[in-house]
Design brief:
28% of the residues lie in helices and 46% in strands. The chain has helices at 3-15, 19-26, 51-63, and strands spanning 27-34, 47-49, 65-73, 77-79, 82-93, 98-110, 113-120. Helix 1 (3-15) runs antiparallel to helix 2 and helix 2 runs antiparallel to helix 3 (51-63). The longest helix is centred in the first third of the chain and has 13 residues, at 3-15. The radius of gyration is 14 Å and the shape is globular.
Length: 121
């Protein structure tokens, strides 16, 4: 797949909140995830290496959510081997008040597979 095709498929699956399929079908086995430094204060690793570790991190994070009130993924912007999306959600974490979250995700693609994801929030 081209970067554009990978980005389009990511967008489609993200708007379905089908994160496991994204990771199973679009992520390279050795994909790297980078979160902002403030993620550590939320109990998340800043760097995560490997598809299975990233999947496990996502499962653990979703387990802390009580309710997803809304979720959206913007149309991707593609440049060379990169694409970016804006992710917005309104959620209630267990034991916390409802909140709105926004982040930018930047993804690097090689040979049709995401090899790096980086988030800014």
């Amino acid at each position: 797949m081209t970067t554009q095709e990978t980005a389009a498929r990511y967008h489609e699956l993200a708007n379905q909140r089908n994160f496991i399929e994204i990771q199973d079908t679009l992520y390279d086995e050795n994909v790297v995830c980078e979160e902002p430094e403030k993620a550590a204060s939320m109990g998340m690793a800043i760097f995560t290496n490997g598809r299975e570790a990233i999947k496990a991190k996502g499962v653990a994070r979703r387990a802390t959510i009580e309710t997803v009130h809304s979720y959206s993924c913007s149309e991707p912007i593609v440049a060379g081997e990169f694409f970016s999306v804006v992710l917005k959600q309104e959620i209630t974490f267990k034991g916390k008040p409802r909140m709105a979250l926004e982040e930018i995700g930047i993804f690097q693609v090689k040979n049709g597979m995401v090899i790096k994801e980086q988030f800014f929030y």
